[in-house]
Amino acid sequence: MEAYIGSIGSKLQMLTTSDHASVVSMNLFVALLCGCIVIGHLLEENRWMNESITALIIGLCTGVIILLISGGKNSHLLVFSEDLFFIYLLPPIIFNAGFQVKKKQFFRNFITIMLFGAVGTLICCTIISLGAMQIFKRMYIGPIDIGDYLAIGAIFAATDSVCTLQVLNQDDTPLLYSLVFGEGVVNDATSVVLFNAIQSFDLTNINAVIAWEFIRNFFYLFLTSTLLGVFTGLLSAYIIKKLYFGRHSTDREVALMILMAYLSYMLAELFYLSGILTVFFCGIVMSHYTWHNVTESSRVTTKHAFATLSFVAEIFIFLYVGMDALDIEKWRFVSDSPGTSVAVSSILLGLVMVGRAAFVFPLSFLSNLAKKSPNDRIGFRQQFIIWWAGLMRGAVSMALAYNKFTSSGHTHLRGNAIMITSTITVVLFSTVVFGLMTKPLISILLPNPKHQSRSLSISSDPATPKSLTLPLLEEGQDSLDDLGGHEIARPSSIRALLTTPTHTVHHYWRKFDDAFMRPMFGGRGFVPFVPGSPTERSPPNQWH
Amino acid sequence: MEAYIGSIGSKLQMLTTSDHASVVSMNLFVALLCGCIVIGHLLEENRWMNESITALIIGLCTGVIILLISGGKNSHLLVFSEDLFFIYLLPPIIFNAGFQVKKKQFFRNFITIMLFGAVGTLICCTIISLGAMQIFKRMYIGPIDIGDYLAIGAIFAATDSVCTLQVLNQDDTPLLYSLVFGEGVVNDATSVVLFNAIQSFDLTNINAVIAWEFIRNFFYLFLTSTLLGVFTGLLSAYIIKKLYFGRHSTDREVALMILMAYLSYMLAELFYLSGILTVFFCGIVMSHYTWHNVTESSRVTTKHAFATLSFVAEIFIFLYVGMDALDIEKWRFVSDSPGTSVAVSSILLGLVMVGRAAFVFPLSFLSNLAKKSPNDRIGFRQQFIIWWAGLMRGAVSMALAYNKFTSSGHTHLRGNAIMITSTITVVLFSTVVFGLMTKPLISILLPNPKHQSRSLSISSDPATPKSLTLPLLEEGQDSLDDLGGHEIARPSSIRALLTTPTHTVHHYWRKFDDAFMRPMFGGRGFVPFVPGSPTERSPPNQWH
After folding, report:
1. Do A2 and B19 touch (CB under 8 A)?
2. What pLDDT was estimated at residue B43?
3. Nearest residue on chain A to B525, judged by CA atoms?
4. Angle between helix B338-370 and B121-136 (nearest 10)
5. SS3 A407
6. Which of B471, B470, B464 is nearest to B45 (CA)?
7. Interchain CB distance below 8 Å, B308 and A251
8. A516 Cα to chain B: minimum distance (Å)
9. Contact A43, A54 (CB under 8 A)
10. What angle do the packed helices A380-389 and A338-370 form, to 10 degrees?
């Protein structure tokens, strides 16, 4: 990831060109963000749309308008920069994901998620690389070497599950949600690690030693990144528990939580680890310990502030991608041979679909073999939805493609320009076309539970689907604890450990958590009552 | 202000030089911010310290350490940039000030605040300019023209009341707080407008026409900026009231409020107005209307999120100023003649004290003449505190000085270097020495009410002084309404309007607000009960 934090100056490149033009751009961009939120709200009940597609389409429309006004010279307000994306926009999204995830479901399906996220991404990357190598060699595109092909594999192996998660519901389809969500996070991390490894390793002569080195490196990164995230989260819990005892200050607590979360991401970058994994596990630990050590006001504030940051960052990304898609410079190379570009995009899209099918169905089969209860198994319809949910390609693919095929946002080689435009095409097509079809598809494949509880949830709670997941945080707190006891009898032998490993691990984790971790770091039930709650501080009638 | 939004690329200039070094810098900076919060919390009960001084001292110490490690080459992590300050750090501080201010006190003292903030700053600027012109002409400093002298006046007329406001309490000394606070906001705006006017006007031949133009321009800016802020605030209230009726979403509401507040600032920049004034009045309108149209969760979240943003931005600024103070490049010019630098700094500090005294005491006298009730008058001790509270010079002065005397953070002229180092010296000296003396001074001058309620508030509410002001928002909501009725009988004639103008204006404002504004834009008591409160959504036992 280190490589992306290069020329952040280019982030606001438009600001250096002209002063007043930059202010106009920023105004327009902030106004468009507001517009996306309002329109997204109005279209909320719509069967097809969601916030991401709205932002993408508004971005495209704005791009067209700017293109027309500037006489075909310019289409975007800001130059797309991986730095802006990886330093400012991605961390809040991933942190919020970890902070709001239902830990019970996530850890119960931990092995399956890892299978999909790590092994699956490797399979997908290999298939796309090999397929592209075989097909593109026969087309005249430009000089593309083996490193480029592997990079293409990594770029198109990075899924974008934001769009799907806006449609899937954590309550109705907890298994599906946790699988798609968990896979998305692990997949992001895997793709980025893979991409960096491809950039840095000498790939001209691949042999067993290099392959072994590669795999060892991957697991080392995974483990250390997770540990760093857990460490930072525990540190924040410890600091707030020790220091703020009896003298709580909401502003300081909230500021410390935000800064420590961001620090975990930056520390991972410092040690050349995966910031995405680190900040994700930091979010999980913070919601399990730190969140219980602060005042009621701080809890409400952090819960919603993190969700809002993540929400704005998502809209920002889609608006940005939509606006950047029309950049005239990249399309100039392609306009000579539109057929080639369409062919390349279609081939890549096909490879994405094949590559994903090649691991979702076999790995689901493997995962089902290990499950005893039929309820825990992944049915064929669910497998299809998992396959479908990972077809969308988004900002991570864009950022990686820009990093590989451009130098500070500009490209002058034909082959590179075609790769960039193909990435844009695949991202736009998959997000808009596949994205539009997701809601109807899910309601066809999973008709009853989905539809019932969705209409129920809308009538009982006027919040959006996104906000619906928020109150779950409280329920999620004790999920780690309950898991050992409530369904399966306590295992008493080594055999039990072998047959129900996840549950046994959770049972011992729960004992360890209660005996050592919670007295040390705080958490639900282990912190004295903290005043400063909104219900306490002001008379009740003020809140009605 | 337009001029400041130039080369924002320089903001993260360090990032372009070396990739890994930049990550190290960002890590260190975030870690230092965390450290400042923790140390500030530990020193909270200390008689002398406050958060600003802590941040400044930590910044200085870090600067020394970096200077030693780098062998005297470098002392800061980031190059100080007016852009970063004016675009990202100042808006949240001023918006939060408007959002949390006690509107009752602010509007009651509106005329006095305007006297101090606008007329006083003009007097102060004139005295400093004339004094500097007379004294510096006799010293060998370098080529300084009349525009530079006027700029020096504007630079050193900009007070920094952040430090004082951390010590003054809105509950104990409401009059003093609102005067110091209101003056601070108006003073910031006046200084910036003044500075821009000096930069753009042809000042070689000043005559009555230019002076009249200048004054007209000032009032035009003031009025339009205020109106723009009020308009944006009302727009946000209207959108949220109309759109979110019955279908509230906390994330969207919070995101809209933050984005619209920022939009108001950027719009002001777009139209070459004063963003500071605009965002301040936007904050006032948002807390009066918009804040009442959202869910309970949104209210708690926005209240604390804005306060936290402002808090972090303040610490960031002081840390930044402290670290930048040791920049070796600027001190090189001064090292030849340390006597000159000390002399210039002392003279400027003296002029600041004289210039402030020259308007605080006469204007307080004028203001007292208009007041009938002795309680409303400003006593001599209070005048002394108002004088003292405005002696600190801070980030606004630094930003203006950098804008005037450097080009993108570097200076190569002796005169300019001396001005920069003198500004740094005055800022450091006034913030640390005067800042340290403020708490003891206030407890000597206002011994009884201050001390009693301070210890009381700590025992009854474990929040910090900053957070103590937060619950006041609710009380503040109805202050505009109550003002007309609760103390003074309703005026029934034109004579009453002349003798108690403020109260009469408020009485009619209240009628207008109830009859037209609130039904249109929402507000306390004019919005149906909004579900989604933390107390409603989850069972009560979850919150204990």
Report:
1. yes
2. 81
3. A544
4. 150
5. strand
6. B464
7. yes
8. 23
9. yes
10. 140
Q: Kindly tell me if the per-residue pLDDT of B540 is higher than 50.
A: no
A267 touching chain B per CB within 8 A: yes
B40 → chain A, closest CA residue: A252
pLDDT for residue B14: 32
Contact A311 B12 (CB under 8 A): no
Lowest mean pLDDT among A368-382, B280-294, B462-476: B462-476
Q: Do A263 and B27 touch (CB under 8 A)?
A: yes
Provide the pLDDT for residue B467. 35
Q: A387 and A124 in contact (C-beta within 8 Å)?
A: no
A residues 423-462 lying closer than 8 A (beta carbon) to B: 461-462
What angle, rounded to 10 degrees, do the helices at B146-157 and B414-429 form? 20
**B504: pLDDT strictly greater than 50:** yes
Comparing CB atoms, the residue among B38, B462, B529 nearest residue A544 is: B529
Q: Distance from A268 to chain B by nearest Cα, in Å?
A: 10
* CA torsion angle B305 B309 B312 B315 (round to 10): -130
Query: With a CB-CB cutoff of 8 Å, which residues 64-83 of chain B face chain A?
Result: 83
What does the pLDDT read at residue A73? 67
List the single residue in B with minimal CA-CA distance to A249. B463
- For residue B185 the two structure tokens come to 């906001």
- pLDDT at position A493, please? 53
Q: Across-strand partners of A410?
A: A407
CA dihedral sign of residues B296, B299, B300, B301: positive
Q: Which residues of B touch A301 (CB under 8 A)?
A: 300-301, 303-305, 308
Are B304 and A13 a contacting pair at CB < 8 A?
A: no
Token pair for residue A490? 């306590």
Q: Say which of B34, B42, B300 has its CB closest to residue A301.
A: B300
Residue A463 confidence (pLDDT): 34
Contact assignment for A296 to B542 by CB distance below 8 Å: no
The pLDDT value recorded for residue B356 is 92
Q: How confident is the model at residue B301 (pLDDT cuts 50, 70, 90)?
A: very high
Using 50, 70 and 90 to split pLDDT, how confident is the model at B500? low
Q: For residues B368 and B375, is the Cβ–Cβ distance under 8 A?
A: no
How big is chain B by its Cα radius of gyration, in Å?
24
- Asked whether the beta carbons of A22 and A397 are under 8 A apart, the reply is no
| CA of A458 vs chain B CAs: smallest distance (Å) | 9
Q: Is B247 on the interface with A (CB under 8 A)?
A: yes
B439 within 8 A of A508, measured Cβ to Cβ: no
Cβ-contact A101, A170 below 8 angstroms: no
Please list the rounded mean pLDDT of every run of 10 residues in chain A (544 residues): 33 43 84 89 74 84 83 66 80 87 81 87 91 84 78 88 71 81 82 78 70 80 90 93 74 92 92 87 92 88 92 87 77 75 90 92 87 76 88 84 72 78 89 84 71 37 35 38 39 53 73 82 68 40 34
